[in-house]
Amino acid sequence: MEKIPCFNLYIQKSIIDNWDRDAFTDFKGQTLQYHDVARKIEKLHILFQSSGVQKGDKVALCGRNSANWAVAFLATLTYGAIAVPILHEFTADQIHNIVNHSEAKLLFVGDVVATEVNPTKMPMLEGIIYIPDYSLVISRTDKLTYAREHLNEMFGKKYPKYFRKEHVKYYMEESPEEMALINYTSGTTGFSKGVMIPYRAMWSNFDFAVANVGPFLHPGDSIISILPMAHMYGMAFEFMFEFLTGCHVYYLTRVPSPAIIAQSFSEIKPKIIISVPLIIEKIIKKKVFPKIQNNRMRLLLNMPIIKDQINEKICDQVSKAFGGSFYEIIIGGAAFNQEVERFLRRIKFHYTVGYGATECAPIIAYADYKTFVPGSSGRAALHMQVKIDSKDPAKVPGEILCKGPNVMLGYYKNEEATKAVIDSDGWFHTGDLGTMDAGGNIFIKGRSKNMLLGSNGQNIYPEEIEDALNSQPMVVESVVVQRQEKLYALVYPDFDLMKNMGFNKEDLKAVMEQNRQNLNATLPVYSKIAGIEIHDEEFAKTPKRSIKRYLYS
Fold first, then answer.
1. DSSP-assigned letter for residue 103
2. Topology of the domain covering 7-171
3. pLDDT for position 544
4. Which of 202-211, 329-338, 385-394, 539-548 has the lowest mean pLDDT?
5. Nearest-angstrom CA–CA distance, 416 and 405
6. What angle do CA 527, 532, 534 make, to 5 degrees?
7. What is the SS3 assignment for 430-477?
8. Which position has the higher pLDDT, 425 or 190?
């Protein structure tokens, strides 16, 4: 591989080259041009410097996608600090855990998060900054208070006439191995792993996107950011790649319901779409299927002479539901609904399915829709090697291993966990099972990590939920499963205790419902339990006494 270039130089160059172009828009809200982004970055740099933030200090960000969130993130990297993006849907306790574990010096918070977090539970923080206007929620140092109160004054003194392109000079990382950010896989103390992402991984993912999608995306093109930027998938391919290309990124600052997403596609007409299966499935099932699943359409599709023409017209209608201007839709994170995927294949829709992991920032495998093999998750991405730990990788599933510049430095302050997944030869053990054909196409057969995917790309770890549920009254063991976009808990209760207490079935149901409510009060929105189902028998186990989860999913 060629020498890895400086990643922050790309940020600097994009701002200078696209100075007068639109950069970020909050859907139905403010628009920032690249020069506005540069001004805001410079002001945050002055704030950082004046308040005593050093190179290598951690700066956490927790809020819904927005133009100002993006600016704060860029300001952190280009100052030389380490960003700690946190999913805004985490509970307050989870946010506290991550801020404390990462040793963040500052925390940027969105409007909702600002009302939920408790500063007293984050004693190492020097200040909390409100993302919508960068005002101080709390300051624990005189330097930070003074800096924020006199920020415009200090900016005016530094740039008495105008802030121009030539003033844009950012921190350049000293090595590709230098840490750019820490992305936490979850928010709880026991399971939380801070994935240390180096600049080389940021560059490698960007270079992959340039090679594969770059020819179809140009400066000034519009895209929609749907996935959380605090998630590596959304960050790499709905934010950083587009910003470095000179694109105009729209943020759906409200809850991205199917109706809002569909409206944004229609108005913005994005040039590339990055998504997770559930979003695509919802739009197709709500906007497309009702129009074509009628007797007349079924009759026409059974006529061989016009079948292809009808499918072509349907494909055109589906494309229009997504704005009609995109090159392809890239889907990642989970398997497609089979009905929807068969439908898209039949109409020759431009979609592809990729494969990644937070630990690879995130891309591992991809194939353009023109060469994508249905049912696969693409082939090893640019700069990456992938192999299957199996005697017969084409027929016998084995663990998917990968190697290359995308792979993380390790888990923050967790050497044991790092050694468990990165072997002595540098191969990252994904924990996922798969096969690989002669063409290098990867077919995922199961996720041994048991991770589930929320409707907007959030990682859900069922073991965490089960651990909390198992500590509730009258619960012996449980299995959390996903049906469509909802989570359900299958529970084997303590029947002996039930008998001793003189409880009947209705009493037991009432206890379980109370358990569900108690549990949900501690969980983020995307991982709340929709219902509890009681199992009369103990769950089937492996020789190691692990529950055979596949029997219940």
1. T
2. Rossmann fold (3.40.50)
3. 43
4. 539-548
5. 21
6. 145
7. EEEEEEECCCCCEEEEEECCCCEECCCCCEECHHHHHHHHCCCCCEEE
8. 425
